[in-house]
Design goal:
alpha+beta, OB fold (Dihydrolipoamide Acetyltransferase, E2P), five-stranded mixed β-barrel, three-stranded antiparallel sheet, 6 helices, elongated
Length: about 240
């Protein structure tokens, strides 16, 4: 990454207090991916940056510095922030936390940036939340190099069939199972073929299908998140 970056399209993923009056910010930049920077004086009441340094606000940021952590030199915006409330706000915070936790710093992910921006706009609109999140999670895993094959049995390479039952192993895929233990098709890593197919098409016919899609993506992501839970998920649980 260059020592000086001018007017880079970016969103704020996360920010926290730093020293007396500054902010430590994780930006998601179109050309540089996740970038950490210090906004000096960003917490001061009279800071010219303070009104702009909000999540879901499309920004143009200028950064300087030779080290891993940059310094915010300027912040501009000509558009309003994307407004999210309720579960849609929690969903946006969930996307931010996923990117912050799993994306390596200073690596371009321009397609993921576009998918993220589209997801925020869809959350601001009327698009089904479950569909928005599953679409982004699938694209996110693909961008990281861990895309899920929703079309074929990973052992036999035969097409997934609606009436079959499959075992899902993260980073490996779906394998048909002939017999299911007492836990039945609702077991954590056992899925009906029709639910896999509906996830591939992002067309969910009922709550069971939506829940299965959520479980598949949670298993796939947890393999890379490790034992530390996502804080944003607790927001959904609290609201429920």
């Amino acid at each position: 990454m260059e020592n000086r970056v001018y007017l880079q399209p970016a969103y704020i993923l996360h920010k926290q207090a730093f020293q007396n009056t500054s902010l430590l910010i994780d930006f998601f930049c179109v050309d540089y991916g996740r970038v950490r920077a210090v906004a000096r004086g960003g917490r001061r009441a009279k800071s010219k940056y303070r009104p702009l340094l909000q999540v879901f606000h499309p920004l143009l940021v200028s950064l300087t510095g030779k080290g891993e952590v940059k310094t915010v030199a300027a912040v501009e915006s000509s558009v309003c922030a994307i407004e999210l409330v309720g579960e849609r706000l929690f969903s946006g915070l969930y996307l931010n936390e996923l990117i912050t936790r799993l994306l390596m710093s200073n690596i371009e992910h321009s397609m993921l940036y576009k998918n993220y921006q589209n997801a925020l706009l869809e959350l601001q609109g009327t698009e089904d939340i479950n569909t928005v999140l599953r679409r982004f999670e699938l694209s996110f895993l693909t961008e990281l190099g861990y895309g899920i094959n929703l079309e074929q049995d990973c052992v036999s390479t035969e097409a997934v069939k609606a009436d079959n039952i499959y075992l899902f192993v993260p980073d490996h895929g779906f394998e048909q199972v002939v017999a299911v233990q007492e836990s039945g098709p609702s077991a954590t890593n056992i899925f009906l073929g029709k639910h896999i197919m509906e996830l591939r098409q992002l067309k969910f016919t009922d709550k069971e299908s939506r829940d299965a899609a959520k479980r598949i993506l949670r298993l796939a992501l947890q393999a890379h998140l490790g034992g530390k839970p996502l804080h944003s998920r607790s927001l959904f649980a609290h609201r429920a």
